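Appendix B, Record 12. Input sequence as logged:
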Amino acid sequence: MSAAVRSRALALRSRALALRAVFTRDRLLSANAVLAYVTLAGFVGHMLVAGNYGYFRDELYYIISGRHPALGYVDFPPLTALLAALVRVLAGDNLVALHVIPALANAALVLVTGLMARELGGGRAARALAAVGSLTTLVFMANGSIFSMDALDALWWALAAYVVMLVVRRHEPRLWLLFGLVAGVGLFTKLTILFFGLALVVGVLLTPLRRDFRTPWPWLGGAIAGIFLAPYLLWNATNGWPTLQFFADGSHGNGALDFLINQLVITNPLTLPLWIGGLVFYFRRPAGKPYRALGWTWVFSYILLTLVNGKPYYFTPAYPMLFAGGAVVLAEAARKASREWLRPAYAGALVMSGLLLAPLAMPVLPPATYARDYTFLSFIGNSGAGKGGQTSVLPQYLADRFGWMELTRAVARVYDVLPPDERAQACIFTANYGEASALNFFGPAEHLPPAISGHNNYYLWGPGRCSGGVIIAVNVAASDLEKTYAHVTPAATFSCAYCWPDEDGISILVATDPRVPLNGAWGTVKNFG
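Logged structural output:
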């Protein structure tokens, strides 16, 4: 054997030994490795279904909002629209690319939940249990498959709680600056993190952690968060505070009892031991006493959201910090009882429940298969999304991914048969932002004019170049149109098998001969809710 061949063989053997040293059994099964596997499973699971079904109603709205850059919108702060615009620049109108963001946010939430269990003193089993709790939570599974504020909102709540744990464990008040940064990004995403912040202040005041208020750091952290909120406040002030009207007119739940019942269902019933264990950890265990402010934060967040009649899913971002504490309690209880098998058994049960619930939360099954096997569960998803009392084949967050392109084509057929003089001045008016956004997204391919609406931010965007001389009205009652138009003619009816019922069997009308100019009547179409 030549010296060169021998040298190469030795080099290959050295590399093989190095790889064996890296991929030892202990490392492959270490706490960090197991947590990484759970996190990766969540991301891969969402990406496998990222191209199924179609664009969700709100996704279309965010995409169109991204084409109207602003410091805020009637129903949400600017971050989501900015991200939609960024995705469009990087990947065009690609549904899978759009869904990378919620999939990453959900995976990060799973990871942070496990890291919180580590900060609370949990070992490998506790970290894995906590992470699996978030992985299999019904609402988080749904959020991870939709480009919206909600997947990011849950992540910011969890990160904020994690930073509070770091403040406590490291006795480092300067970390309140990091908390302010996380809370600020949260406010730039969705305002519901205000409930977390208010509840945390109460929780801190009720515990020895209030000593930090004698330092400048929590106050500076609050100022940092305020900097992120300031642009949205400025936008609201210059536009007549539409967000306040939006919350006053809509976005409500169905009362305190419905809110409570939904907490037991939409989190995944099998996670109940985790969040009960979390309350035990923060309020009864010596190891949880330093972190008791977070326990009070959970309690007061619940109370605040119940008092304002919030939708049930608004509260779900508060659960990861409970899962973390509960996982520590359950893992320790199994160890002390010499029932080590309980930990993998419970984790396995959570995983199985997650797999069974996944079609209820994510676009996993073909709609016909879902209709055959899962429709009897759709009321759970509708209730958790604040749509209780409404029946549908698919729950709203799945149903609202169907029919948008077909609706656009139906409107195009009406538009194409208008007389040339009417077609030249026609514009489209819709009942809600979902219809308007779909028509503005898919409409250019069908050579349709822009769609307008009085719903949420569409009202502020106004009628644009639409004169109102001829209106193709989508899902608008003829009696409402007849108040301002002399002639209202039914043109078509749009039906859709798997759509949300509000979009099935809707009328498409043509209105001509306006009694008043559209600009003059615009104030009557406002609908914030």
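The CA atoms of residues 462 and 522 lie 8 Å apart.
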